[in-house]
Every structure is written in structure tokens, then in C-alpha cells.
Amino acid sequence: MRVGILGSGLIGGKHGTLFARAGHEVVFSYSHGEQKLKRLAREAQGNARAGTPGEAARDTDAHLLAVHCSRMDNVLHQADDVSVKVIVTCSLPMNNEDSNHVLTHTSSSAEARAKMVPTARIVAAFNTVPSEVLFGAYDAKRKARRSSLVYCGDEDRDKGVAATLIFDVGFDPVDAGLLRIARYAEPFALLVGQLAYGGNGGPELAYWYEWFRTYRRMCRSNRHERSACSSREGMQIWTSSEAVPSPPAKDRPSTLPARFVLTPCFKHPGPPGCSAPVSRSSPAPGPPGTPTRWAKL
Q: What range defines the domain where residue 169 resides?
């Protein structure tokens, strides 16, 4: 994917570096000086280069908008044409002193960007974890447990672009719904910032979500097949011959549908007529029968 970084400061510089190391083409732009942009491109160790906002906006699949709200008009003006492009924004609606959130729950910075560029495709992401955790998450991305990162937008296709970038830099993408949900994600980002910078634990802070709800589905002998008898935490695992998608939220379908696996009923071990608990696994997109990746049971 070709990604233009509009705002190559602390946040944009780190994300652009990780995008490049993950194999994407990156153009760094909009910083205090050209030398910094060249240094970022050199240190990214991938297919990255320095450029102007206009160059970062041309011939790219997506943009990362990572500037303070007070500079938003300026960077978008320099970028010239960002219409019909996917813009992933990580900006928060803060005042000039970064001391107060300037919007209420009636709007968000992401929605303000959508009004500013009506033809652009806005997705809010990358603003709910401190920058200090980014390289650690990338280095640990092959581990079983990934930290979560929420994102939201109005179109599934555009959210798919954001989800790909999130996954490639080491996080588990969590679809929070429509773009208006940024009204709640942005204050949540301030809470994370308070814990990271105002607490005693340090800024290397991330989060993850886990669903503990158990769904039940009647077993039918003709709808189950015994898997290669694997054992997980002392439990034999049944898998369904058709993957069961997670129930979608009321206001949107899931871009990366979660899958479920069926575990045997201990009181009634045989399939006919028993009710087996269904445990949520992490996202595993694909056709029926696609192997799932397990979350903690």
C-alpha cells in the first residue's frame, strides 16, 4: 500500500516508519524541515522517501493525518487534492495549549475533518495508544497476544484500509462502528494519555479487549465434524463445519468478522441434542471453515 504521511512529527514519524518497515511505500511530509523528513525516510529502513504534502497526496492509497487541529487547514491546503482518498486521522480536538478537549460529545475531530473535505473517506484510528508503545508493539507482533487498537468510519472498504495498517504495525484492530463513535474514542484517548503520562507506570501503555460472553447453539450431528482431536487447557475442541459469524453491532457490519468455535458439552458429550457453549475467537476472515485464531477461553 502507498501511504502519504501528512504531519511527520512524533506521531506521524513513528507510524510512517512502521508502515515502511511493514512493507508499505511511504512518503513523509509536513515537518519543521526537509532534513528531518530525509532522516525519517532513511531511518525507516524500507521503501520511504521525503516529499511535500502535495507529493504525499498524489498517487497514494491512503493518508495518515497527524497534525495538531490548529494546523489542519494549512496541511490540507498544501496537500491540495485529497478528495476520494482514504484519510486515517489520529488527531485529537485539543486547544493550542493541549490542555483541554475543545469538542463535546456532539462531534469529534474526525467528523470535523469529514465536513472539511466532504469527498474524502475519513477513518479515525491510531490515537488511543501512546507513541512510546508503538515500536514495542511492532517488535512483539508475532506473539499470540496483541494489544487492541480501535478504529471507526462509515464505509467498510475504507475501514479495511485502516484495519490493514493497524494489523501490520502489530495491533489487533477493533472495529468500533461508524465515524460518529470517534466522539467517544477521542475522550478515551485522553484517559489513556492521563494513565500513561500522569500515572506512575510510565508511557509504555497499551490495552486489549476480551469478550467473556458465551453464546449457545443447538448441536446437530449433521452440522458438526470432529476436528483433529486437539486439546486446549484440558478441553477437547469441536469445530463447526460452517464458521459462525459474530452478531454484528446494530449500526454496522463488522469489517473483520469474529468467528466462533464450538466446545463439547461435558454433561452430554455426544453431538445429538446437546447444547454446546460457543466461545469467541479473534478475527479470522474468510469462507466457511476458515481456521480461527484463539483468544483466551
A: 2-198
Residues 230 and 177 in one domain: no
Distance of alpha carbon 296 from alpha carbon 81, whole angstroms: 45
Distances (CA, A) of 48 to 164, 186, 212: 18, 29, 42
Last residue of a domain, one of 163, 198, 233: 198
Same domain, 131 and 249: no
Domain assignment present for residue 145? The answer is: yes
Q: How confident is the model at residue 113 (pLDDT cuts 50, 70, 90)?
A: confident
Reported for 56-59, long-range contacts at CB under 8 A and 24+ positions apart, including other chains, are 56/4, 56/5, 56/6, 56/27, 56/28, 56/29, 56/30, 57/4, 57/6, 57/81, 57/82, 57/85, 58/4, 59/2
Max intra-chain CA distance, the chain: 70
Beta carbons within 10 angstroms of residue 108's beta carbon: 26
At 177-234, the pLDDT tens digits run 999 999 999 999 989 999 999 988 999 999 999 888 654 443 444 343 333 333 333 3
